[in-house]
Specification:
Helix content: 25-40%
Shape: elongated
Order of helices and strands: HHHEEHEHEEEHEEHEHEEH
Organism: Caballeronia sordidicola
Distance between the termini: 47 Å
Protein name: Transcriptional regulator, LysR family
CATH topology of the domain at 158-266: D-Maltodextrin-Binding Protein, domain 2
Structural class: alpha/beta
Strand content: 15-25%
Family: Belongs to the LysR transcriptional regulatory family.
GO molecular function: DNA-binding transcription factor activity; sequence-specific DNA binding
CATH superfamily of the domain at 158-266: Periplasmic binding protein-like II
Number of helices: 9
CATH architecture of the domain at 158-266: 3-Layer(aba) Sandwich
Keywords: DNA-binding, Transcription, Transcription regulation
CATH class of the domain at 158-266: Alpha Beta
Length: about 290
């Protein structure tokens, strides 16, 4: 196997942590992948992976080698992109990570795929906070403040966040007039996947007032299920307006305690600062900036 092919296989194994999965992606057997990695280790004189019956993990030398290999493959991709830029439409594989918000993300991805059929999409649709550079993503969509100096960012837009409940729930349990009354209500709460901490409902209260202890009626690490349960009369949920826009317009959900909440969430698209912005990446950034309906 040529050196560049071996490097590409090594990076795929590092990403998947599996000889079997890498083999499936490349159309090879797991033993063929394992033997190729073993030959690379023998040639380099170092062990790149710790192997066990259940998993493989990078050694310290493997981690260092992976960083260099990503740069090499990035440079090769950049060279190919520069040559093909003038040859026609953008093409190639684009690896992206987005929040687990299919109702927001998928319409934009569907439109992008229709407009750029030669670009292959590999999407990590989850609320996991990925390491964009180390894990080899081309671009990610995130919310909140961004502080990673390795990344370039573009603001996609902002929307308000509201506390909502269905008319059916409010008829049965009553409409709270003050946050302190929430201790007697069913609360549908979001848990941050990275930390396991519950998202705070940001009530604006007097200095002498403490935040209410919210009943943990239902807790989830993704917010779309909270919107679903709110529509089923299961309780109150704190959600971004893009997720409940249609339900609010139809009357299926109502905003409550609006006088006590004034918060927005901002979406960003980010990509590695050190990476050449290939045609496929540039058109994706531009398309998402114009078509993500926040």
């Amino acid at each position: 196997m040529d050196s560049l092919g071996g490097i590409s296989m090594f990076v795929q194994v590092a990403d998947t942590r599996s000889f079997t999965e890498t083999g499936r992606q490349l159309g090879l057997s797991s033993s063929a992948v394992g033997k190729s990695i073993a030959r690379m280790e023998e040639r380099l004189g170092v062990r790149l992976f710790h192997r066990s019956t259940r998993s493989i993990t990078l050694t310290a030398e493997g981690t260092l080698f992976l960083e260099r290999c990503r740069r090499i493959l990035g440079e090769v991709e950049a060279a190919e992109a520069e040559l093909s830029d003038a040859a026609g439409s953008p093409r190639g594989r684009l690896r992206i990570s987005t929040p687990q918000l299919s109702g927001l993300i998928m319409p934009a991805l569907d439109g992008f795929m229709a407009q750029y059929p030669d670009i292959e999409i590999d999407v990590d649709l989850s609320d996991r906070m990925v390491d964009v550079v180390e894990e080899g993503f081309d671009t990610v969509i995130r919310t909140g403040a961004q502080h990673d100096s390795r990344l370039v960012s573009r603001r996609l837009g902002s929307c308000g966040q509201v506390l909502v409940a269905s008319p059916g729930y409010l008829r049965e349990r009553g409409t709270p007039s003050h946050p302190s009354e929430l201790v007697h209500h069913a609360c549908l709460l979001h848990k941050f996947p990275a930390t396991g901490r519950l998202e705070r409902w940001p009530f604006q209260l007097a200095a002498s007032e403490a935040d209410p202890e919210l009943p943990q009626t239902f807790v989830s690490n993704t917010i779309e299920v909270l919107g679903f349960l709110a529509l089923q009369d299961k309780g109150l949920a704190f959600l971004p307006t893009f997720l409940v826009r249609d339900a609010l317009a139809s009357g299926a959900l109502q905003v409550v305690l609006d006088d006590y909440i004034n918060q927005t969430v901002t979406f960003w698209i980010l990509w590695p600062a050190s990476r050449y912005a290939s045609p496929k990446l540039r058109v994706f950034i531009d398309y998402i900036s114009q078509n993500l309906k926040i």
